[in-house]
Design goal:
The complex is a heterodimer. Chain A is built from 13 helices and 13 strands. By secondary structure, chain A is an alpha/beta fold. Chain A is globular. Chain A starts with 6 loop residues before the first strand and ends in a 13-residue tail after the last helix. Chain B is built from five helices and three strands. Classes of the chains: A alpha/beta, B alpha+beta. Chains A and B meet through helix 9 and helix 13 of A and strand 1, strand 2, strand 3, helix 2 and helix 5 of B.
Chain lengths: 407, 134
């Protein structure tokens, strides 16, 4: 069977909209266009029913109560609202926050924004596997610690943190626990109650839903805690997020959450994991000097992040244009610094420049994976033939023994 | 990133990729850049007694712009004099390949590679002159 090109293997960046999700969204763009806040006619009632159904679907995915779900524009807003909202409301208790160096920029930059308000942030290192340990969190907690923000699964290396253990530590010390769960949704079973999570950032477009919609889980009940809104207006979403609800988007999020929950039990993740494993086994059979970045054991079923030593990431991406993936190389960005995530877990900067991230998804096929293995193998071999570093290594030279001139 | 057709063409069909004998007296080797910075260029020039570059070969670890810059340089210097090669400025390379601003350092590296290769050749020549012939 001919493979349709290009092949999409960048499902950590975003996922295609599931056609079933689109079908459920469409009526809310056309006949059911009502404002969910209109309480005096059927247009509003229909819209409101759809919103509440979606709220239940999102809550079901993470084991929450529907009342605990606040719709936002996406996970970036959810991270901002959770972290900044909780920090500001509880600043009388203290102004210390704990997070890790591997967090998404939405978390890191929310924390940095709070520094200008007098908050002090502890950025935890990860271990070489890319994981944050509960003991590290516990050791960092101080009497004035108000919040701890640790992601469930990393967006670059796919490593899964021990969230339940960290949650237990936070609860014991009365520290609010915020979790960015974007990459884990539908890939890891989530139970916010059992995991002692207080705030959780959710996005639709990483689980085959539409872009521009997300949610923040805000725990209710004891021990009580509150957060402050960032967006003010009509008092929607329990006053925590004003703004007319984008009903069709919310329906899309709810629908995506429904299928994400199914994916946990219907074998989808096993199939995706088998494809991911096939990709890695194929590449590592064909090529030497490959290195996995981050824990292989505690990893999302769809993630492969590896370094193709002696081949620069962007050059490889140019050679495999038929495959959409991502590089941790500096040359793919304007910053000229390679992936801060790889650096944080202590990957040699040389290897960080050669790293690639593949994210397998719901719609990938075995034929696509086999095509990818062939193409990547061919291009890595070609670029290594062109690489003075590979040549030196073949000659038995230790690259570390050379006095390189940094530029 | 949007690249020029010329850059992509050089990346896809690099000219003079390979190695010359680095121990040969008439071959100058320049190895510039650093793996930690994400680019390393090796440029080798085979220069005859008249100071003409008879052959040029490169190997590059780096992004597409770095590969294209080194490929272009080998094309520019082949058959030319040392003086001409020394006169090549990074701006000529950057302009020819329409390098985006964040990739200008690739052209600087290519210029450095020429200079380093010529310096190595000259060093070898000076050593040869200093060694009494048998």
């Amino acid at each position: 069977m001919a493979v349709k090109l290009p092949i999409y293997l960048d499902n950590h960046a975003t996922t295609p909209l599931d056609p079933r999700v689109l079908d459920e969204m469409l009526p809310y763009l056309t006949q059911h266009f009502g404002n969910a806040a209109s309480r005096n006619h059927s247009f509003g009632w229909t819209a409101n029913e759809a919103v509440e159904r979606a709220r239940e679907q999102v809550a079901a995915l993470i084991g929450a109560d529907p009342k605990e779900i606040i719709f936002t524009s996406g996970a970036t807003e959810s991270d901002n609202l959770g972290i900044i909202g909780a920090a500001r409301f509880n600043s009388k208790k203290g102004k210390h926050i704990i997070t890790s160096k591997l967090e998404h920029k939405a978390v890191l930059d929310s924390c940095h924004a709070l520094e200008s308000e007098g908050f002090e942030i502890t950025f935890l290192d990860s271990d070489p596997d890319g994981l944050v340990k509960p003991e590290q969190v516990e050791a960092a907690i101080r009497p004035d610690t108000v919040l701890c923000a640790i992601m469930m699964a990393n967006n670059e290396i796919g490593t899964i943190n021990p969230i339940a253990e960290i949650g237990a530590v936070c609860r014991r010390h009365n520290v609010i626990f915020h979790v960015d769960a974007v990459q884990a949704l539908g890939r890891v079973a989530i139970d916010v109650v059992a995991m002692n999570v207080d705030l959780m950032a959710i996005s639709a477009h990483k689980m085959y839903g539409p872009k521009g919609i997300g949610a923040l889980y805000v725990r209710r009940g004891r021990p009580r805690f509150r957060i402050e809104p960032l967006i003010h207006g009509g008092g929607h979403e329990r006053g925590l997020r004003s703004g007319t609800l984008p009903v069709h988007q919310i329906v899309g999020l709810g629908s995506a959450a429904k299928y994400a929950l199914e994916a946990l039990t219907n074998g989808e993740n096993d199939r995706i994991k088998a494809l991911r494993d096939r990709l890695w086994e194929g590449l590592s059979k064909n090529l030497d000097h490959l290195f996995i970045n981050g824990s292989w054991e505690h990893r999302l079923p769809n993630n492969l992040n590896c370094s193709f030593a002696y081949v620069e990431g962007e050059a490889l991406m140019m050679g495999i244009k038929a495959i959409a993936c991502s590089s941790g190389s500096a040359c793919t960005s304007a910053s000229l610094e390679p992936s801060y995530v790889l650096r944080a877990l202590g990957v040699d900067v040389e290897l960080a420049h050669t790293s690639m991230r593949f994210g397998v998804g719901r719609f990938n096929t075995e034929e696509e994976i086999d095509f990818a293995i062939e193409l990547i193998t061919e291009k890595v071999r070609w670029l290594r033939q062109m690489s003075p570093l590979y040549e030196l290594v073949q000659e038995g030279v230790d690259l570390k023994s050379i006095q390189w001139a940094a530029h | 990133m949007a690249y020029s057709d010329k850059l992509i063409e050089h990346y896809e069909n690099p000219r003079n990729m390979g190695s010359l004998d680095k121990n040969a007296e008439d071959v100058g080797t320049g190895l510039v850049g650093a793996p930690a910075c994400g680019d390393v260029m090796k440029l080798q020039l085979k220069i005859n007694d008249d100071g003409i570059i008879e052959d040029a070969k490169f190997k590059t670890f780096g992004c597409g712009s770095a590969i294209a810059s080194s490929s272009l340089v080998t094309e520019m210097v082949k058959g030319k004099s040392i003086d001409f090669a020394e006169g090549i400025k990074n701006t000529m390379i950057a302009e020819e390949l329409a390098l985006p601003p964040v990739k200008i350092h690739c052209s600087v590296l290519a210029e450095d590679a020429i200079k380093a290769a010529i310096a190595d050749y000259r060093k070898k020549q000076a050593e040869r002159a200093a060694t009494p012939s048998e």
